Amino acid sequence: MYTDLLDAIGAGSTDGRGIPDPATGDVIGYAPRQSADDLDAAVAAAKTAQPSWDALGHEERSRLLVAAAAVVEERGEDLAQLLTRESGKPLNGPNARMEVAMCSDWLRATARFDIPQDTLVDDEDAHATMSYEPIGVVGAIGPWNWPLMISVWQFAAALRMGNTAVVKPSEYTPLSVLSLVHVINEVLPEGVLQVVSGGREVGARLSEHPDIGKIMFTGSIATGRAIAAASASTLKRLTLELGGNDPAIILDDCDPRAIAEDLFWGAFINTGQTCAAVKRVYAADAIYDELCASLAEIASTVPMGPGVDENNVLGPLQNPAQHRIVSELVEAARTGGAHILTGGDPTDGPGNFYPATIVTDISPDNPLVTEEQFGPALPIVRVKDVDEAVELANSLDVGLGASVWSADRERAVEVARRVRAGTVWINGHAKPDPRIPFGGIKQSGYGLEFGAEGLKAVAVPKVYNG
């Protein structure tokens, strides 16, 4: 039972901060009230544990990551049930059960990667190699939209490379992350993986802490800038995965009905609350109307409601503040003369529900297009040709992901070369793979996660010359 997890992390005490269910408003548990002093204690424990964790070697650390994957699977349904109640995302579809399964998959994949080692020079005059060694203690600051999966993305690679880790979950979704760490710590040595639940005071202390060698952060651009500034005095290494507002370019040779389902879920995964989801669509005039109609048909019929209902695949927005942002941006579109093809009118009642909304005939400079809505409202901009689509896609100062859709893959790749983003998917969107590096450019941050490059990012290079 997920309530057993709440008991194990001390979430039954009303001395903590109440965490509401986004679908009902009912309190599901109480987050411990932790402070900067608690953070200091966690960092000290992680620092003490790090040398012996490193000394275990890659083979043993990999074995323990696989063991961690197994215990996550064993408690998978309990974790998914808690995640649904805390985040609002439904159990089924690309949501809670999938997120928990991806945690196990990612732990196993990270355990399997070959450790990077490069031969730089090897001839009669010189021999030099470069290996990668642990940084020490890595701080991981996670978001509320995929709290379990992104936490694993952050700490799995760090642990594999011999670091210890201190995790600070979002104030909105602490219970899930506290429970995940509790489950994983059943198999890890003491002190290796720490978690501290708290507010800005805890995050600020983690960002500046002299014994933290690296910060990994996923979240807003504004918070990323604050972390970069706070970390500067100790020259911490940083991986920052920040806001997206990803474009999708739909070329004129596409069959709108054939791509509509994949495009819809590229935008509406986790009810639109995904950094690398499609946030704006630029569609060729020749297929525009049919594409809009196909997306609206899906949006108007896909089941939305409380996540514990097995029939639902879209849920509420995680918090009232995000509901307000989506509502205001859709109203800005309406006021600006756009057509709300479906959705756009939230009903009164419990929960942070906002209907799946398709917005057409919208100006490319409307706020719903230029600002990241992070919710279930998709603007579709009509373009006359590829050049206009690429220009508009590149017009914003973000560059996390993008996608190009075409019946001709080579044509799509040619267009993708012109799009400025860290990842450009072809005929798909928001499909992370533990083997494939991922990271943003421009104001979407810097640094890579996943695969061999992700391992390098949580280590320091060391050259052996001679």
From TrEMBL:
Superkingdom, taxonomy of origin: Bacteria
Cross-referenced Pfam families: Aldedh
Keyword Lipid metabolism: no
Active site: E241
Enzyme Commission code: 1.2.1.3
Keywords for this protein: Oxidoreductase
InterPro entries: Ald_DH/histidinol_DH (IPR016161), Ald_DH_C (IPR016163), Ald_DH_CS_CYS (IPR016160), Ald_DH_CS_GLU (IPR029510), Ald_DH_N (IPR016162), Aldehyde_DH_dom (IPR015590), LUC3-like (IPR044086)
Aldehyde dehydrogenase domain: residues covered: 21-460
UniProt enzyme class: oxidoreductase
Molecular function terms, GO-annotated: aldehyde dehydrogenase (NAD+) activity
Recorded family membership: Belongs to the aldehyde dehydrogenase family.
Protein name as catalogued: Putative aldehyde dehydrogenase (NAD+)
Organism from which the protein derives: Corynebacterium glyciniphilum AJ 3170
